[in-house]
Design goal:
The complex is a heterodimer of chains A (265) and B (898). Chain A folds into 3 domains: 37 residues, no CATH class; 115 residues, 2-Layer Sandwich (Uridine Diphospho-n-acetylenolpyruvylglucosamine Reductase, domain 3); 94 residues, 2-Layer Sandwich (Enolase-like, domain 1), CATH 3.30.390. In chain A, 26% of the residues lie in helices and 27% in strands. Chain A has 9 helices and 14 strands. In chain A, the strands form 4 sheets. A 5-stranded antiparallel beta sheet of chain A has the order 4-5-10-6-7. Chain A has a 4-stranded antiparallel beta sheet with strand order 11-12-13-14, with helices on both faces. In chain A, β11 and β12 form a beta hairpin. The longest helix of chain A has 21 residues. By secondary structure, chain B is of the alpha+beta class. Chain B has 4 domains: 165 residues, [2Fe-2S]-binding domain (DNA polymerase, domain 1, Orthogonal Bundle); 185 residues, Aldehyde Oxidoreductase, domain 3 (Alpha-Beta Complex); 175 residues, Aldehyde oxidase/xanthine dehydrogenase, molybdopterin binding domain (Aldehyde Oxidoreductase, domain 4); 130 residues, Aldehyde oxidase/xanthine dehydrogenase, molybdopterin binding domain (Aldehyde Oxidoreductase, domain 4, 2-Layer Sandwich). In chain B, the strands form 9 sheets. Chain B has a 7-stranded mixed beta sheet with strand order 8-10-6-17-14-15-16. Chain B starts with a strand and ends with a helix. Classes of the chains: A alpha+beta (265), B alpha+beta (898). Chains A and B meet through β3, α3 and α9 of A and β4, α5, α9 and α25 of B.
């Protein structure tokens, strides 16, 4: 929709252009920004920074904040964890047509429980690189970046530059399960398991909770262990996409399946 | 520079503009707005060849790129293959989603049928149920081209098909603005932040001072006329409880002030500059609480007689309390009894086209309103009353309507543009947003329905008690009608000596409820058919068998809770056949296999509906022929995907011995056609269609008489064909019979009325661990009389079933203290392609005495039995009875696990 209060649009070409004037906000794909009425008065287009969408290197994969979901799907599927990329992209309510517009960085910053790029990044212990307005940068696990629904640690003027996915995670075996109120609806619960080479298992819960939950195990947990663990989670998410008690029960079912799949592998 | 379909456009996009509005401003009005939020796909275009939702794509980013819309893919004389496929498959109904569907489908390569739902999840269709869209993408041909005089009973394509698939067909706001004498002005409305408040002061100074603002209206500036947004043939059917602007606001979002300005942005900015002071009033959101003593009164200030509100002192807008026989005694002596209370949800119509209207003054100073409405003539009459104009000084024009489902049997935006055009003397447009459609436009009435049933040992129904409470919201539009109709055919379909109905339609401070497909029947049928299923279990009888023993058959009076004089008759009867068809289909075991470990069951439900609304429904039609042998039908009813236009073409082509391509229909314009009550109650075929039939018969007789006299032979010796009239040994072409035009008129008054039936059956699997329901087979049998157009009728039924499955499993408007929390499609689950199974559609073999050529109406009805059939199947599978809609996975899981 038209953002009728917006009176300026600047194309950012250099880091200095990212200093925001009052009322300005950073525009990435725009698929969310243009989907709701906004109170902002100015846009600064990040996509004109010319960042490489993604780079493969020895330490893993760097994904620019402006990398679209479609571009992310072009990353060569050379790792054991590669199938997880498409599984997470398909978990988005949005169709392939929005993949060409929506960005990985935008999905992280929006911090919606059903933000499947958050699920992907959290499951792979990815770190987000943040440009600070003073010219420095900081790094943070995505699991710690997201504090709650539409709430992150990002401070005014901070801009997400990239997502760094470590090679160890990419080489791990993963299992993915999601559930929603309709077959392809907005995710109500996503559970991803990651079995590292050393046998350690990382289980992440997203969509069912206001923020990502990460559980780490020395080896795949039993059903009893999962039940006890989930009993300690408070604040299952409550919105139009599922009641909290149901989300908890479904998440547990998904977690059983994920652990069983990884035990079998 | 942005290239649109190969033409460069130099206009510079505004900084916050999306590509959708840019394209429409450049004249590419084939790009539609369904949601404006990236959810529905109606605005899909290709940007450098990539399918994109233009509503969330910054227009500035398209500079230097090539944009292709559906009109760039192909044109009416050179269709793109996918456009041709949508025509051939009849892959649309209203056609509002079609441009986006086709653009998206045009990019697909080697997508299997199994993958299609995932690929198409970004395109919503509210009309079809998606089967015909799947067919279109697969290249299946469902339509045919009948020979002259053989159109009736064949699957003729909709006359607008080529226009729809190429984006040429114009919906309400698609007319160019370039022809207007002065630039178009735009409306923004300030909505109330409170559920119930009195406006104590409005200071418009700052808003008025904004450059570009032409008019600010508050309750002090508008006619103090009470009316109802709900429109019926008889205006007394709805309570007069609404003003254009009211000093008291009764729901969140209700109009507080109207701003008219040069742009939408300016009008919105001016709204933010309005200073309003409110005195908060106590509010009530629960219809049961609203009836209790001491509850806040929503319309306590109204006079019951003049406003036609049954009991404003108790928030009751309408009520019915009636009994035949002795229900208490019958229940006491019953061999088997069952009772329960059922609750339906608040549902939005989700027509892909939002409400929107444009008004201007004609050269003679009269008011013209172009709007998206099911009822142009009823809007005209009431608009004239509200604005104090003679009816003949108001013209209402309706183009193709992008979905209705009852939601456009209202006067929602026309009063605003009409008044603003009169005050400013300039053309004015008011276009609702999707959020408006959720928050301020009437929704389906939520109902609480309690049912007690009693039967004797052989399964004869002996007692039926129904108690209905409807939440009509802050205004009573359609409140009485929905309540009375809801309790009518649902109860009358059963033969039972002792019946009692208590029903009340109740005001609350929620958004208004209105007319929705089925008009109240679906909610009450959900309860009664669920209770009948339970009763069958109590009796140890098959549920379909129980119904066979108790449904009315020809000769039985149709009784709700009193013997009444009625024009409702058995024009035909196919309920027995429908029950058998569904029984056989379910027994056959057809359908998908159930996943391991899931619970499996089947269930069914029936629905009866009168073929025409009661108390008058009129249509006056003219059919003309010109010297080329082209026929023109002038008819007042509207086309919103119901397929009425196709039916009218078929009737004329059949009667006048011609082919459908030689018949054109001019419709829904109060200036060009005779009076028509409008497109509601599924009347397009059985009222307007009857009028068309009469006019066509008269024109045929006229043509034959003219020819016979010219040839000097008896009329019986002449035959009318596509090229003229053939007599013994010689023939006359149309230009030898007709100078300029020859026409005949026909009319119908909607009485007497017949009844139609629908029976639905489901076999389902339920996963108790998650509450997921999988539909293994879905079958609906319909008694529609003689089938006018098999493909189109199948489409209407599939669409109704799809909407029914949406209401039964997925859709729910969530409110908290009157505030609508579900304000976007992404928070409200309109079924996607993935959500709907293919439904087997079967027809009873009947011929109606009253309908045109034996046909009956069949648009609303298919929706009604779906929710209870699904609930009964779930009950059969799980052993637990659902009482609340939607039977969403979380609700069902809780039902099975607590």
């Amino acid at each position: 929709m038209d953002l009728n209060r917006v009176t300026s649009l600047r194309a950012a070409r250099a880091r200095d252009d990212l200093r925001l004037a009052p009322g300005e906000t950073v525009l990435a794909g725009g698929s969310w920004l243009f989907s709701e009425p906004q109170e902002i008065s100015g846009l600064v287009d990040l996509t004109t920074m010319g960042w490489e969408p993604w780079t493969v290197h020895d330490r893993g994969l760097s994904v620019a904040a402006t990398c679209t979901i479609a571009e992310l799907m072009d990353v060569p599927a050379v790792w054991t964890a590669s199938p997880l990329f498409r599984q997470c992209a398909e978990a988005l309510l949005m169709s392939f047509k929005i993949w060409g517009t929506a960005t990985v960085g935008g999905n992280l910053c929006l911090a919606l429980p059903a933000g499947a790029m958050i699920s992907l990044a959290t499951a792979l212990d990815a770190v987000v690189v943040i440009w600070r307005p003073d010219g420095t940068e900081r790094r943070e696990l995505v699991a710690e970046l997201v504090l709650g629904v539409r709430h992150t640690t990002l401070q005014s003027g901070e801009v997400v530059r990239s997502l760094e996915i470590p090679i160890g995670s990419l080489r791990a075996r993963t299992a993915f399960r999601r559930f929603s109120l309709a077959p392809l609806g907005r995710s109500s619960a996503i559970v991803i398991g990651r079995l590292d080479d050393d046998g350690r298992l990382t289980l992440t819960v997203t969509a069912a909770t206001p923020r990502p939950y990460v559980f780490r195990f020395g080896s795949p947990p039993t059903d009893d262990e999962l039940q006890n663990l989930f009993a300690s989670v408070h604040g299952w998410y409550d919105d139009a996409h599922g009641a909290p008690d149901w989300r908890k029960a479904v998440t547990l079912e998904l977690a059983y399946d994920v652990c069983e799949e990884l035990r079998a592998s | 520079m942005i290239s649109v379909n190969g033409t460069p456009h130099d206009a510079e996009p505004r900084p916050g503009q999306c590509l959708r509005t840019y394209l429409r401003e450049q004249g590419a009005v084939e790009v539609k707005k369904g949601c404006d939020a990236g959810d529905c796909g109606a605005c899909s275009v290709l940007v450098d060849g990539t399918a994109t939702h233009s509503c969330i794509y910054p227009a500035a980013r398209a500079v230097g790129r090539d944009v292709t819309t559906v009109a760039g893919l192909g044109s009416p004389d050179r269709l793109h293959p996918v456009q041709q496929q949508f025509v051939d498959a009849a892959g649309f109904q209203c056609g509002f989603c079609t441009a986006g569907m086709i653009v998206t489908a045009s990019t697909l390569r080697d997508v299997t049928a199994d993958e299609l739902p995932r690929v198409m999840k970004g395109n919503l269709c509210r009309c079809t149920g998606y089967r015909s869209i799947r067919d279109a993408i697969a290249g299946t041909v469902n339509t045919s081209r009948p020979a002259a005089g053989e159109a009736y009973g064949t699957s003729v394509a909709a006359p607008a098909a080529v226009g729809v698939v190429t984006g040429v067909e114009r919906f309400a706001l698609d007319e160019p603005t370039t022809g207007l004498r002065t630039p178009l002005l735009h409306v923004a409305v300030l909505g109330s932040p409170h559920a119930h408040a009195r406006i104590t002061a409005i200071d418009t100074t700052r808003a008025q001072a904004l450059a570009g603002v032409e008019l600010v209206l508050t309750h002090e500036d508008v006619p103090d006329v009470l009316f109802s947004t709900g429109r019926h043939e008889n205006r007394l059917d709805d309570p007069d409880d609404t003003r254009i602007l009211d000093p008291v606001v009764r729901f969140r979002g209700q109009r507080v002030a109207i701003v008219v300005a040069e742009t939408v942005a300016l009008a919105e900015e001016a709204c933010r500059l309005l200073d309003v002071a409110y005195e908060l009033l106590p509010a009530v959101f629960d219809p049961h609480e609203a009836r209790r003593a001491g509850a806040p009164l929503v319309h306590g200030d109204k006079e019951p007689l003049t406003s036609r509100i049954s009991d404003p002192g108790r928030n009751v807008v309408a009520q019915l309390h009636a009994e035949i026989g002795d229900v208490d005694a019958a229940l006491e002596h019953a061999h088997a009894r069952t009772s329960g209370t059922w609750q339906t949800a608040r549902v939005t119509h989700a027509s892909l086209e939002t409400h929107g209207a444009r008004a201007w003054l004609a050269d003679d100073g009269s008011l013209v309103v172009r709007t998206s409405s099911q009822v142009p003539f009823l809007v005209r009459t009431e608009l004239a009353r509200i604005l104090d104009l003679p009816v003949e000084r108001v013209r209402v024009v309706v183009g193709r309507v992008g979905g209705g489902f009852g939601g456009k049997q209202e006067l929602i935006v026309e009063d605003v543009v009409g008044l603003a055009a009169l005050r400013t003397g300039r053309p004015v447009q008011y276009e609702l947003t999707r959020e408006d459609q959720f928050t301020i436009v009437p929704c389906r009435h939520p109902m609480t329905v309690s049912v007690d049933l009693g039967a004797d040992a052989d399964g004869t129904l002996t007692a039926m008690r129904v108690d209905v409470v409807t939440d009509t919201g802050a205004y009573g539009n359609h409140g009485p009608g929905v309540m009375f109709h809801g309790c009518h055919e649902s109860v009358a379909v059963y033969r039972c000596a002792n019946k009692r109905v208590d029903a009340e339609a109740v005001y609350t401070n929620n958004l208004p409820s209105g007319a929705f497909r089925g008009y109240g029947l679906g909610q009450v049928i959900f309860a009664i058919e669920s209770a009948m299923d339970e009763l069958a279990r109590e009796l140890g009888l098959d549920p379909i068998e129980l119904r066979r023993r108790n449904v009315i058959v020809p000769g039985d009076p149709m009784i709700v809770a009193a013997v009444e004089e009625t024009d409702l008759t058995y024009g035909s009867y196919g309920l027995d056949q429908c029950l058998d068809l569904v029984d056989d289909a379910l027994a056959s075991g057809r359908g998908e296999p159930a996943p391991d470990g899931w619970l499996v069951g089947s269930g069914s439900a029936l629905a009866m509906i009168a073929t025409i609304p009661p108390r008058g429904h009129h249509s006056n039609v003219r059919v003309s022929v010109d010297p080329t042998g082209t026929y023109t039908v002038d008819v007042g009813t509207a086309e919103f995907g119901n397929g009425t236009t196709t039916v009218h073409v078929q009737l004329v082509a059949q009667e006048l011995g011609t082919t459908p391509d030689r018949v054109r229909v001019r419709q829904s314009d109060t200036a060009t056609s005779g009076y028509d009550t409008g497109a509601y109650g599924s009347t397009g075929s059985v009222v307007a269609g009857r009028a068309v039939q009469v006019a066509a018969e008269r024109l045929r007789a006229e043509l034959l008489t003219l020819a016979a006299r010219r040839l000097g032979v008896a009329t019986g010796a002449c035959t009318l064909g596509p090229d003229g009239v053939a007599g013994p040994g010689t023939s006359l072409a149309f230009d030898e019979l007709v100078v300029e035009s020859l026409s005949a008129e026909g009319s119908h008054d909607g009485t007497p009325r017949s009844i139609a039936f629908n029976v639905h059956g489901f076999r389902v699997a339920v996963d108790p661990a998650t509450g997921e329901v999988r539909i293994l087979s879905s079958v609906q049998a319909a008694d529609a009389g003689v089938v006018i157009n098999p493909e189109q009728l199948r489409g209407q039924i599939e669409g109704g079933v799809g909407q029914g499955i949406g209401s039964a499993l997925y859709e729910e408007m969530v409110l908290r203290d009157g505030e609508v929390l579900t304000r976007t499609f992404r928070d409200y689950r309109v079924p996607q392609m993935a959500d709907l199974p293919v439904t087997e559609v079967l027809f009873a073999d009947t011929v109606d005495e009253l309908g045109p050529r034996g046909a009956k109406s069949m648009s609303e009805a298919p929706y009604n039995p779906v929710a209870p059939a699904l609930a009964n199947a779930i009950r059969d599978a799980t052993g637990v009875r659902p009482h609340e809609l939607p039977m969403s996975r979380d609700r069902l899981w809780r039902l099975l696990n607590t």
